[in-house]
Fold:
Amino acid sequence: MRKAALILTVLFYVVSLMARPHVPVILTAGQSNADGRVPLSELPDEMRNFKYCMWSYGSGDFETATGQFSLFSPRVAKPKIEESWGFDAVVYHKLENLWQRPFYVIKHTDGGTAIDPSCKSSTHGLFWSADEDFLNSTTSASHGGKSLLKAFEQQIDDCLPNLPKGYDIKVLLWHQGESDQRADDRYYENLKAVIKHIREHLVAVTGKKKYARLPVICGTFAKDSRMRSQRVVDALYRLAQEDKNFYVVDASDLPLLRDRLHFNAQGAQELGQRVFERMKELRGFGG
Structure:
């Protein structure tokens, strides 16, 4: 009887652990449209008070993340436009309504940054490149180097110990490519390598092989954008055809600010809605 009771107790404990919902984690990365350029004065009232979304925000050499989380409040690190927001704020707001419980965001974004190191106009000479020669030649952008990929992955490493037990990294949201306009013939290989590097890094630091298939959701660009490249767009759709865990969200019809580069409030809200709808279709995304 004692043995049977012990077995039942152990089974009950195991079942209770399995029944606990995972703590969702969202990764967000890219350049200015992922960082956000919509004035905070145009943020919808219902999105001004978050209560479940906790985030860690890094931005190249503008702001170094510490690995600590704080309650999400839309802002960017770039001087003079700190009070801005982007489409990802819409996504987090909708996830709050969907999940009704805490979740975590690890975000690293820096406006004007390219993947390819040949793009000399990339902000402060920082790059997302996964090229081994480039990575071996520099250090993290957050520590005086030129690699945004190293900065992002170091931020992830610093954040993981501060997440609740049972966390589950759900998806990477990526919006970038405008600054690779002059290297657009290499964008397919460059972005493919970046995604591979991030996935392999997650497998290595968590020990979970499932992250080799981490879903990636990537938005395109408005057709009127002055930095839109058809080759970059074609590269995104090619990746989606080849990688069943890579998804493209069309943004070609969305309106922009007067700079003809960044989504305005309407565009950011619509892109956020489209990304959220795509996320809901992913397997196991109910929270």
